[in-house]
Specification:
This protein is an alpha+beta fold. It is 35% helix and 23% strand. A six-stranded mixed β-sheet has the order 1-2-6-3-7-19, with helices on both faces. Strands 10, 11, 13, 15, 16 and 17 form a six-stranded antiparallel β-sheet that branches. The chain has a three-stranded antiparallel β-sheet with strand order 4-5-20. A hairpin with a 2-residue loop joins strand 8 and strand 9. The radius of gyration is 24 Å and the shape is globular. The two termini are 22 Å apart. The relative contact order is 0.19.
């Protein structure tokens, strides 16, 4: 069987196992992957905080004289409404050169490609300098207030996933801007730091609004002000690297957005959220009864900080923008906001792969506006972690519309390309004896 057929068949089997989170039930996928890998001599171990939510960690042991490389992925998915789909979301149907189903792009396709990559290398007798590890973890999609997946592994079983380098999700899209072909590689992510504005007023009966001080009305002005928020622009290493790949020169922070817009609207769309912190009011809660004027209104705001930016700094900026008023400011936790340096052996391997794949193309670093599981590795071990799973056949625009949406699917050509890349990077970062 060819590796192309192998990865298609494995992905179909993975999609047919419903791992919508919640509740997840990722153990069924972990067991399937273990049963697939063991016959090829790949060491496999299941780690589970609770029996139904297991993480698979598989490895080819290295000689001990080189860095460890982790192929990271998660096995849970978001929900799917069958009525919105052209096919059964858990069918794994092969149609028009694509595998269809929930998780095909996010991210069971990369799970299958990673499994086939490590299995095929094991069959060939590959002996890396450092361990080659494949982790298929639980519980990534909820992101907040949960602890069954990589965060738990890093804390409770650190030696299982400790590594110098890691390849995860986050980018790999092929884009063409101003005649240049770029393959995006995420080397950093913003920090998700939501906050709540508690806007104060004075309650009263809604039939006599003049005797009250409506907190909801007070909040309206603050919400409008947040909607107009414009941060002071700043350049990060990732944005500088993106401009260097795009146009061979890096503008000043002040001119960055206009420079990107002059090249291509797509470039401006990508750069704008990466020039500073962003705020977006998303939820509001006030009176619980129609005839009661609220004395307090709570506005929940999605806030994303640049890597290295602190919440204290961000709060000062937001308060200065809003001005004085009858409100309190409360952070509601946060995570992410990490980066990996560029110019590493892993970056060089990605660069070599991209140039061999498409002469003249180059990788371009980006900062993910959201966040991935990579931050757990960076925080725990100082791991150099990049998000890269190359996609050449499917456009970046189409992929973005399909992730977490109906009719999610992945090109078989891109699946095969992903296997080729992961095999390439394993050999490049941890040169083997075979």
């Amino acid at each position: 069987m060819s590796r192309r057929d192998e990865v298609v068949g494995l992905l179909q089997d993975l999609i047919r196992l419903d791992t919508v989170n919640p509740p997840g039930n990722e153990t069924r996928v972990a067991e399937l992957l273990r049963d697939y890998l063991l016959p090829f001599g790949v060491e496999c171990e299941l780690y589970a905080r609770v029996p139904e939510r297991a993480n698979l960690v598989a490895r080819i042991r290295g000689r001990g004289d080189g860095p460890r490389l982790l192929l990271l992925s998660h096995t849970d998915t978001v929900l799917a409404d069958r009525d919105e789909w052209s096919v059964d979301p858990w069918s794994g149907e092969l149609r028009d050169g694509h595998v269809w189903g929930r998780g095909a792009l996010d991210m069971k396709g990369q799970v299958a490609a990673s499994a086939v990559a490590i299995a095929s290398l094991a069959r060939e007798g590959f002996e890396p300098a450092g361990d080659l590890i494949f982790a298929a973890t639980a519980d990534e999609e909820l992101g907040e207030g949960v602890d069954y997946g990589l965060s738990w592994l890093c804390r409770e079983h650190p030696e299982a996933v400790r590594c110098e380098y890691a390849v995860n999700e986050g980018a790999g899209d092929r884009i063409e801007i101003a005649g240049r072909v770029l393959y995006l590689c995420s080397s950093a992510e913003k920090r998700s730091s939501p906050f709540v504005l508690h806007v104060r007023g004075r309650s009263g009966h809604a039939s006599m609004p003049g005797i009250a001080d409506n907190a909801l009305v007070r909040a309206a002005g603050l919400i409008e002000r947040l909607g107009d928020f414009v941060p002071e622009p700043r350049l990060t290493p990732e944005t500088e690297g993106f401009f260097a790949a795009l146009a061979d020169e890096v503008p000043t922070a002040k001119d960055a957005l206009s420079s990107a817009r002059s090249v291509d609207p797509l470039a401006a769309e990508m750069v704008e959220p990466l020039l500073g912190l962003t705020v977006a009011p998303t939820m509001i809660e006030a009176s619980q009864k129609r005839n009661v004027i609220p004395g307090q209104c709570d506005v929940t705001v999605d806030c994303r900080l640049l890597p290295g930016q602190t919440e204290d700094e961000a709060e000062a900026v937001v308060r200065a923008w809003l001005g004085e008023g009858e409100y309190d400011f409360e952070w509601r936790g946060g995570q992410g906001g990490t980066r990996s340096e560029l110019g590493t052996p892993l970056w060089a391997a990605i660069e070599d792969f991209v140039r061999a794949l498409e002469p003249g193309a180059r990788p371009a670093p980006i900062c993910v506006a959201g966040f991935t599981d990579s931050h757990w590795l960076r925080e725990a071990f100082g791991t150099v972690a990049y998000g890269f799973f190359p996609m050449k056949a499917m456009s970046a625009d189409l992929a973005a519309r399909l992730i977490h949406s109906a009719d999610e699917r992945i090109s078989v050509d891109d699946l095969e390309l992903g296997v080729d890349f992961l095999r390439f990077v394993a050999r490049a970062v941890g040169p083997g004896a075979a």
